[in-house]
Fold each of these.
Amino acid sequence: MKISSFLHFAGFGIKTILFRKKDPILGTVIVTDKCNLHCKHCSVNNITAIIHPYEQIKGEMQQLFDMGIRILFFCGGETFMWRDGDRTLRDLVKEAKAMGFLIVNVVTNGTFPIDLPEADLILLSLDGDRERHNAVRGDTYDTIMKNIAAATSDNICFYMAVNKINKDAIRDVCHTARDTKNVRAVSFNFHTPYPDTRELALTRDEKKECCDIIRQMMKEKVPVFNLKSAFPYIIDNSFPTPCHQCVVIENGKVSVCGRCIEIPGLCDECGYFFVAEYTLLFRGNLRIIFEMLGTYLKYV
């Protein structure tokens, strides 16, 4: 991370904590909900299958920038399916950088070739070893690993959504992240139980067992892009929600924190580690602050 970016985020954090501000710093643009997969845990794919046009997305990016957001995510659906004429996802990342966003990340399922060195991080969904990943996402594991090996940059971070199917594969994903070329780290979430996927949600005891394993992996120097100080809050769902510092824009509609905010009761069962980490950070939790400093300076 550049010194100028670090200073900007530090200043934002200090003002947010001291004055209890609710201004956003992280924004996500949904470029499409079209996806080539039908994963068992996903509730937001192919609802419209619309690929939003370049000028619309550029306008949404500008809207987020004008709100003060400086960390930008492109998300789907599957982001690498986005195209408008000759323009591809790379053009969106370049436009975001030119616009002034300090960190630009992309979320992908990894089934398309990975040639995007301009992104700060490519969060790539790997949901277990071959058997359990394929049980969640279909027969894609080998394709993903080939694409990672052929990637043109080392900016990949695994992104695992832990659920009933793959909860026993955390070690496998950690070791794969540690041992695979072009992979910088691994980041975890717990399954957030949308009404149609509730059967995949973990119990509190299962969450604790998973966090114990992740903590052990950290002790073994596996590159984990999460904050262990947040684990007790994540296990008990005792962190404040929603996260006002994060927003999502999809087809012109801005939502605080995420697309799921309008589903009654779902915030109380949130499984997103970053939501816990950010809300605790901006409430002034000192352990979170110091741990986040070390983690972000290491992996971003």
Amino acid sequence: MKKTVSDRSMSAMSIITLILGMLTLIMGGAYLVNHFLTERAYRTKWRDYEDCGMM
């Protein structure tokens, strides 16, 4: 069975769509991890000032 040009382009588009979807999920996860770590570092930095009554 011979594949036509249309079949090949649809296969390529499916692969590209899959890769873009995976990249979106990975980038979203990386953003959430970065946000969590940044927030934790911020809270740790200001913890001493909360204890002494400055805030």
